[in-house]
Design a protein that fits this description.
By secondary structure, this protein is α/β, with parallel strands linked by helices. The protein folds into two domains: about 35 residues, no CATH class; about 170 residues, Vaccinia Virus protein VP39 (Rossmann fold). The protein contains six helices and eleven strands. The chain has a seven-stranded mixed beta sheet, with helices on both faces. Strands 1-2-3-4 form a four-stranded antiparallel beta sheet, covered by helices on one side. Helix 1 packs parallel to helix 2.
Length: about 210
Protein backbone atom coordinates (compact mmCIF):
# COMPACT_ATOMS: atom_id res chain seq x y z
CA UNK A 1 0.00 0.00 0.00
CA UNK A 2 1.28 3.45 -0.89
CA UNK A 3 2.28 5.82 1.93
CA UNK A 4 0.27 8.90 2.83
CA UNK A 5 1.21 12.08 0.95
CA UNK A 6 0.70 15.52 2.50
CA UNK A 7 -1.08 17.71 -0.05
CA UNK A 8 -1.50 20.89 1.99
CA UNK A 9 -1.15 22.34 5.45
CA UNK A 10 -2.75 25.35 7.12
CA UNK A 11 -1.96 26.08 10.75
CA UNK A 12 -2.91 23.03 12.76
CA UNK A 13 -4.66 21.36 9.80
CA UNK A 14 -3.11 19.01 7.24
CA UNK A 15 -4.65 17.34 4.19
CA UNK A 16 -3.23 13.96 3.20
CA UNK A 17 -3.95 11.52 0.38
CA UNK A 18 -3.28 7.84 -0.22
CA UNK A 19 -4.53 6.62 -3.60
CA UNK A 20 -8.25 7.59 -3.58
CA UNK A 21 -8.46 8.10 0.15
CA UNK A 22 -8.17 11.48 1.90
CA UNK A 23 -7.59 12.38 5.51
CA UNK A 24 -7.60 15.66 7.45
CA UNK A 25 -5.54 15.95 10.61
CA UNK A 26 -5.71 18.58 13.33
CA UNK A 27 -2.62 18.94 15.50
CA UNK A 28 -1.45 15.58 14.15
CA UNK A 29 -4.63 13.74 15.11
CA UNK A 30 -7.05 12.29 12.57
CA UNK A 31 -10.06 14.58 12.28
CA UNK A 32 -11.80 12.79 9.41
CA UNK A 33 -11.25 10.18 6.74
CA UNK A 34 -13.03 10.05 3.39
CA UNK A 35 -13.54 6.29 3.64
CA UNK A 36 -15.86 6.60 6.62
CA UNK A 37 -18.94 8.55 5.61
CA UNK A 38 -21.86 6.14 5.62
CA UNK A 39 -23.83 8.05 8.24
CA UNK A 40 -23.66 11.55 6.72
CA UNK A 41 -26.27 10.94 4.00
CA UNK A 42 -28.54 9.48 6.67
CA UNK A 43 -28.11 12.62 8.76
CA UNK A 44 -29.37 14.69 5.83
CA UNK A 45 -32.21 12.25 5.12
CA UNK A 46 -33.44 12.21 8.71
CA UNK A 47 -33.03 15.95 9.16
CA UNK A 48 -34.78 16.92 5.93
CA UNK A 49 -37.65 14.42 6.31
CA UNK A 50 -39.83 17.05 7.97
CA UNK A 51 -39.50 19.69 5.22
CA UNK A 52 -42.91 20.78 4.00
CA UNK A 53 -42.06 23.99 2.17
CA UNK A 54 -40.75 24.39 -1.35
CA UNK A 55 -38.16 26.95 -0.25
CA UNK A 56 -36.64 25.67 3.01
CA UNK A 57 -33.64 27.20 4.72
CA UNK A 58 -31.13 24.61 5.87
CA UNK A 59 -28.03 24.98 8.01
CA UNK A 60 -25.29 22.36 7.71
CA UNK A 61 -22.96 22.66 10.70
CA UNK A 62 -19.63 21.08 9.80
CA UNK A 63 -18.52 20.82 6.15
CA UNK A 64 -15.95 18.04 6.48
CA UNK A 65 -15.61 16.33 3.11
CA UNK A 66 -18.99 17.71 2.02
CA UNK A 67 -20.91 14.43 2.21
CA UNK A 68 -23.70 15.82 4.43
CA UNK A 69 -23.97 18.93 2.27
CA UNK A 70 -24.12 16.83 -0.91
CA UNK A 71 -26.91 14.67 0.50
CA UNK A 72 -28.87 17.71 1.71
CA UNK A 73 -28.64 19.31 -1.74
CA UNK A 74 -29.84 16.11 -3.39
CA UNK A 75 -32.89 16.11 -1.12
CA UNK A 76 -33.68 19.83 -0.93
CA UNK A 77 -35.92 21.46 -3.55
CA UNK A 78 -34.59 23.86 -6.18
CA UNK A 79 -35.65 26.95 -4.19
CA UNK A 80 -33.90 25.88 -1.00
CA UNK A 81 -31.18 28.00 0.59
CA UNK A 82 -28.44 25.98 2.27
CA UNK A 83 -25.94 27.64 4.58
CA UNK A 84 -22.90 25.56 5.42
CA UNK A 85 -20.78 26.48 8.43
CA UNK A 86 -17.18 25.30 8.77
CA UNK A 87 -14.76 26.48 11.48
CA UNK A 88 -11.71 26.03 9.23
CA UNK A 89 -11.19 28.26 6.19
CA UNK A 90 -8.64 25.72 4.93
CA UNK A 91 -11.21 22.93 4.87
CA UNK A 92 -13.54 25.15 2.83
CA UNK A 93 -10.78 25.92 0.30
CA UNK A 94 -9.81 22.25 0.02
CA UNK A 95 -13.47 21.44 -0.72
CA UNK A 96 -13.45 24.01 -3.50
CA UNK A 97 -10.35 22.42 -5.01
CA UNK A 98 -8.76 19.05 -4.27
CA UNK A 99 -11.79 17.54 -2.51
CA UNK A 100 -14.51 18.91 -4.79
CA UNK A 101 -14.89 15.67 -6.74
CA UNK A 102 -15.73 13.77 -3.54
CA UNK A 103 -18.99 15.68 -3.10
CA UNK A 104 -19.93 16.50 -6.67
CA UNK A 105 -18.67 20.09 -6.40
CA UNK A 106 -21.32 20.84 -3.78
CA UNK A 107 -19.97 24.29 -2.93
CA UNK A 108 -20.58 25.40 -6.52
CA UNK A 109 -24.32 24.83 -6.17
CA UNK A 110 -26.07 28.25 -6.39
CA UNK A 111 -28.25 27.33 -3.41
CA UNK A 112 -25.20 27.22 -1.13
CA UNK A 113 -23.64 29.98 0.96
CA UNK A 114 -20.65 29.46 3.25
CA UNK A 115 -20.06 30.86 6.74
CA UNK A 116 -16.55 30.33 8.13
CA UNK A 117 -16.16 30.46 11.92
CA UNK A 118 -18.00 29.38 15.02
CA UNK A 119 -21.44 27.92 14.41
CA UNK A 120 -22.92 29.68 17.43
CA UNK A 121 -22.12 33.02 15.79
CA UNK A 122 -24.08 31.89 12.74
CA UNK A 123 -27.01 30.83 14.92
CA UNK A 124 -27.07 34.22 16.64
CA UNK A 125 -27.57 35.92 13.25
CA UNK A 126 -30.51 33.76 12.19
CA UNK A 127 -33.15 33.76 14.90
CA UNK A 128 -36.11 31.68 13.67
CA UNK A 129 -34.28 31.53 10.36
CA UNK A 130 -33.95 27.82 9.58
CA UNK A 131 -36.32 24.99 8.78
CA UNK A 132 -33.60 22.36 9.31
CA UNK A 133 -30.30 22.37 11.21
CA UNK A 134 -27.93 19.46 10.57
CA UNK A 135 -24.98 19.20 12.97
CA UNK A 136 -21.95 16.99 12.42
CA UNK A 137 -19.51 18.70 14.78
CA UNK A 138 -17.07 17.16 17.30
CA UNK A 139 -18.55 13.68 16.71
CA UNK A 140 -21.69 14.83 18.50
CA UNK A 141 -22.39 15.08 22.22
CA UNK A 142 -20.86 11.65 22.76
CA UNK A 143 -17.38 13.13 22.33
CA UNK A 144 -17.68 16.37 24.31
CA UNK A 145 -18.61 17.55 27.77
CA UNK A 146 -22.17 18.79 27.33
CA UNK A 147 -21.98 20.44 30.75
CA UNK A 148 -19.36 22.84 29.37
CA UNK A 149 -21.20 26.17 29.05
CA UNK A 150 -19.25 26.89 25.84
CA UNK A 151 -20.33 23.67 24.15
CA UNK A 152 -22.85 23.71 21.34
CA UNK A 153 -24.46 20.75 23.09
CA UNK A 154 -24.85 22.50 26.46
CA UNK A 155 -28.15 23.97 27.61
CA UNK A 156 -27.02 27.38 26.39
CA UNK A 157 -25.86 26.06 23.02
CA UNK A 158 -29.02 24.04 22.42
CA UNK A 159 -31.14 27.03 23.43
CA UNK A 160 -29.43 29.00 20.65
CA UNK A 161 -30.16 26.20 18.20
CA UNK A 162 -33.79 26.09 19.30
CA UNK A 163 -34.13 29.86 18.87
CA UNK A 164 -32.76 29.61 15.31
CA UNK A 165 -35.41 27.16 14.12
CA UNK A 166 -38.79 28.10 12.73
CA UNK A 167 -42.02 26.59 13.97
CA UNK A 168 -42.17 23.07 12.55
CA UNK A 169 -38.38 22.96 12.20
CA UNK A 170 -36.03 20.09 12.99
CA UNK A 171 -32.60 19.71 14.53
CA UNK A 172 -30.62 16.57 13.63
CA UNK A 173 -27.33 15.82 15.40
CA UNK A 174 -25.01 13.07 14.19
CA UNK A 175 -23.23 11.27 17.02
CA UNK A 176 -20.59 8.56 17.11
CA UNK A 177 -22.40 7.04 20.09
CA UNK A 178 -25.12 7.57 22.62
CA UNK A 179 -24.99 10.09 25.42
CA UNK A 180 -26.98 9.53 28.61
CA UNK A 181 -29.44 12.31 29.18
CA UNK A 182 -28.98 14.17 25.90
CA UNK A 183 -32.59 13.65 24.84
CA UNK A 184 -33.64 14.98 28.24
CA UNK A 185 -31.56 18.07 27.55
CA UNK A 186 -33.27 18.55 24.19
CA UNK A 187 -36.65 18.38 25.91
CA UNK A 188 -35.48 20.82 28.56
CA UNK A 189 -34.85 23.54 25.96
CA UNK A 190 -38.18 22.95 24.21
CA UNK A 191 -37.69 20.21 21.64
CA UNK A 192 -39.67 17.03 21.11
CA UNK A 193 -36.82 14.51 21.17
CA UNK A 194 -36.21 11.15 19.49
CA UNK A 195 -33.33 9.01 18.17
CA UNK A 196 -32.63 7.06 14.99
CA UNK A 197 -29.71 4.69 14.47
CA UNK A 198 -28.03 5.22 11.10
CA UNK A 199 -25.16 4.03 8.94
CA UNK A 200 -24.15 0.53 9.97
CA UNK A 201 -26.01 0.97 13.24
CA UNK A 202 -22.97 2.23 15.13
CA UNK A 203 -23.91 5.90 14.74
CA UNK A 204 -27.11 7.67 15.65
CA UNK A 205 -28.99 10.86 14.98
CA UNK A 206 -30.50 12.80 17.85
CA UNK A 207 -33.62 14.56 16.63
CA UNK A 208 -35.17 17.67 18.11
CA UNK A 209 -38.48 18.83 16.60
CA UNK A 210 -40.08 22.23 17.11
CA UNK A 211 -43.84 22.00 17.34
Amino acid sequence: MKPWKTLATDGKFALRQREREYMVLADGKILMNSRHHGAEPDLARVGCARIETGSPKVLVGGLGFGFTLRAALDIAPDLAKVTVNEPSKAVVEWNRGTLASLNGHALEDPRVSVEVGDVQRVLSKHRRGFDVILLDIDNGPFAVDIDDDQSLYSIGGLSSVRASLKSGGRLAVLSAGTHPGFNKRLVEVGFTASVQYVGDGDSLVFIGDVN
